[in-house]
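Bit of a strange request maybe. I'm writing a small parser for structure token strings and I need a real example to test against, not something I typed by hand. Could someone generate the tokens for this chain?
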Amino acid sequence: MTAGEAAAMPVLPSLRDVHAVVVGDLMLDRYWQGEARGISPEAPVPVVAVSDVEDRPGGAANVALNVASLGARCTLLGCIGKDAEGAALRSILEAAGVLCDFVEIDGWATTLKLRVVSQQQQLLRNDFESPVPAEAARALAAKAKAHLADAAVLVVADYDKGAVADPAALIQAANATGTASVVDPKFKPLSSYAGASLLKPNRQEFTAAAGQFGDVDALADSAQALCRAHGFGAMVVTAGADGMTVVDGSHTHHLPARPVEVYDVTGAGDTAAAVLGVALGAGLPVLDCARLANVAASLAVAKSGTAAVSGPELALAAAQDSTDGGVLTADRLALAVAASRETGERIVFTNGCFDILHAGHVAYLQQARQLGDRLIVAVNSDASVARIKGPERPVNTLARRMQVLAGLKSVDWVVSFDEDTPEPLLDRFRPDVLVKGGDYERHQVVGADFVASYGGEVQVLDRVEDCSTTAIIDRLA
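Reply from user aminoacidic:
Good idea to test on real output. This should exercise your parser:
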């Protein structure tokens, strides 16, 4: 069991080519909002003067809305009545880019959850619902099979309202086409979802299936046993403020919840299911999918009601979790820089070989860091150093040079480049300040004109005397 490890947050990949088919119980979440004007004389309840009515997708519809908001292509299958609520649900989803292939049922009402809200507090919820007719559920399953041929992932959002009457048939159809499947279950026996690529129960649903457990280790043991028994590829058990437990084969990890101010937990499970689905559909490992879902859920609970999380929003939040510093790839650094700029931070950039780190390097990096809020140090690859300095260099490998630099208090991020100059990185990150040590004149600083062209600054710092990598090497020789 690995508890609360601080492994690197994965980069959210492009989801443009990921097609997710979402199947499940559709709901319309309706909010009546207004000012509470005292207590009713008829009963000890508040009187709310409703001034605003807002409709939002709920259940599987909220999963689909999140999938589309994240940037993936989404086809949603579910059941609606031939009523105003069903029409409203379709309109909202289609406006968000969701392809809706619904079964419309005569004489059956679209599931509606009506909430009365005042001063950001939910006072009352009324549910208007009846089970989905069996023939409609069968028609829905037939539609799902037709859409799986070009899907990367099937997401089953089962709320036990009747739309997912036979989840095993859906999962078998996905497996037959090589489509990954993510299931957000309710209280059916877990054997109903046998063969799913990933199962995402919450703690209550897991306890109902597996019984009480004493601690996270006992939960992990039970989850592994269930995966073996029912052929699940992996399981992610969500536990709200206690984070997530990820079981993937014989490996188990616990991800603590991100520290955020919780506003409303409504729909956070839908958001997590959507992220798990699209990330798995994009080919990410299960643990990386869960890390991203954990971040997305933290964003969802900070919003009011059922709310979608966008792709850029998730990418920035994930990047902020990576901004504690260290060695980053250029892609991860791009996200970290974007997140830093969102908060108004000033980015400083410098580059070099840093073959043998000495006092001169340390002094100039300290000075560079004082010119802004974040310092990027770009380091020449081994091949690049050899081309510039000769075949005997570098003395230390790239990995070791970057590790030493990352250990300095003044350095926030370390990134490598294989070109002879850092100009491609300068073009990508566009730092506020470009810095070089005192061995250079300003006109010798590579990239100085480019940085100046967009309004950035170029600084050449004072030279520290008697400090030189070449001199150290000569002295050792």
